[in-house]
Amino acid sequence: MKIFSYILVLIVSLVFSSQSLAGNDDFQNTINQLTTKKLRTKLLVVERIIQNDSPKVEFVLESLLEGKVFYIKSNKKVVYAIKENKEYLAKDLLNGNSFGKFSKRQLKKVGINNRIRQKIKFGLSMLSLTHLDESVRLKAVKNTYKDININVFKRIKVLIKDEKSEKVRDSMLVLMNIYQLNDKDPSIRIKAIKELNGNLEPIVKNKLTKSRDNDPNSEVKLEAKKALNSIDSKIGFFKNLETIFFGVSFGSVLILAAIGLSITFGVMGVINMAHGELIMLGAYTTYVIQLLMPNHIEMSIFVAIPAAFVVSGLVGILIQIGIIRHLHGRPLETLLATFGVSLVLQQVVRSVFSPLNRSVETPEWMSGALEINGILSLTWNRLYIIVFCLIVFAALVMVLKKTSLGLQVRAVSQDRDMARAMGVRSNWVDAMTFGLGSGIAGIAGVALSQLTNVGPNLGQAYIIDSFMVVVFGGVGNLWGTLISGFGLGIINKFMEPWVGAVLAKVLILIFIILFIQKRPRGLFPQKGRSAGD
Q: What pLDDT was estimated at residue 311?
């Protein structure tokens, strides 16, 4: 009995192995047809490869996309080839067996055009529909939106029953409804349009526009028109949200750039024209830190933040002790002196780093975007800068409200003479205040380095904006700086699509000039005796 069982198992295994070998032979024959020079025939061969059940289909398609499929000229054998020095190592596409090394003349690359490339990508998407990773399945479904046929529809109809991810299931439903827009039955087309109502995928809007313009049934046209109106309304809403997001992110940069200026301007009454160059020093510090930590880019920004604060802060203290202290009470001379310092700092940077812009690498965790839907996506670097701005603002408020330095800074800003009479060392407070404001400018440079290139003129682009934020919000008032920064950032971004970036800034400047005619001290005027000076 045992002998009979062994014989039966042997027969079954031989049958299956022979079927497998036959299947491999058929697949190999299909692959060998890629040697054809006719692109139409090659497209049909690729379609047959996609429809094959072999586990090697994905590898063959990926190899074609990467340009690693060749055939040996002597025997027309299609192989997978990798370049090694001046020769190519050829391997069997199905089992990986090596055929040895060949020269470039002995091989011919299997060329593909854009149409075949799109077909291969579609085939890979179909294979990815059953991938374990949810994001891969979702991407695969969306990749098939543009090339839907009855086979895809049937495949999705089967897969959707067992799909556990809500996102993937929703995308599959969208795909099925897009296909049903071409159904012969008007009631099915109307039902599909109702299901697609409010969907923000770009292809959905395109398909519904075709239905509205070309469908022979008037009821279908009317339903498509309603759906498009609903989609347009949603698109407008999310576009406005995106503009607000860009405005808030731009405002965050303005706040970081202006908040240090607000402190020094409020406490000392100094118009620091070198403030932009202190921002630039912070950006260059980030660049240098990355040069020193080439293998730790992800962590370099955490080192760059305190380093930029220290570098810009120390330079600020030197400027205050060496120049500004000796020009106290002479605002015009102070303005000219700090303008001269800004030119000196620019020239120093040009001499050390060259006049060319330097790019700072963005850490991987700050790259990419948070996709809300087909219209709205929030870039991670801007999101982090908004959060970073709020953290810096909160930390600065705590320093000024809860520390001895903060108490002395507020005392000097409100009544310098009385503070000195009470024993406050105003010269020391001035130096520390200038250092604090300059250090925050350096931190602003770290943030800017993640959004733009680092160059000697980086600070010049933000000095006027910084002064506008300070004047509009109220000199020396942190909350005024926060509100005016966000406000001006949002207004600027809403105006840009209509009048352009340059004219938008000009109009905002005109608005601020008119505003300070009515409220010379800004939105939130400074309190204390010095406010009336």
A: 92
Q: Residue 391 has what pLDDT?
A: 92
Q: Compute the distance between CA of residue 410 and CA of residue 403 in angstroms, rounded to an integer.
A: 11
* Residue 450: count of CB within 10 angstroms of its CB: 21
Angle of CA points 169, 171, 174, to nearest 5°: 115
Token output for 164: 């556990």
- C-beta of residue 324 within 8 angstroms of C-beta of residue 267: no
C-alpha to C-alpha distances, 293 to 288, 361, 363, 454, nearest whole angstrom: 9, 11, 12, 18
Instruction: List Cβ<8 Å contacts ≥24 apart for 504-507.
Output: 505/465
- pTM of the shown model: 0.72
Average pLDDT over residues 469-474: 84
- Facing residues of 77 across strands? 72
Burial 127-149 (b: 16+ CB within 10 A, else e): ebbeeeeeeebbebbbbbbeebe
- Close Cβ partners of 416 (under 8 Å, ≥ 6 residues apart): 426, 530
Q: What distance in Å separates the CA atoms of residue 130 and residue 491, rounded to the nearest whole number?
A: 47
Of 133-137, 223-227, 243-247, 251-255, the range with the lowest mean pLDDT is 133-137
**Could you give the percent of the chain with pLDDT greater than 90?**
8
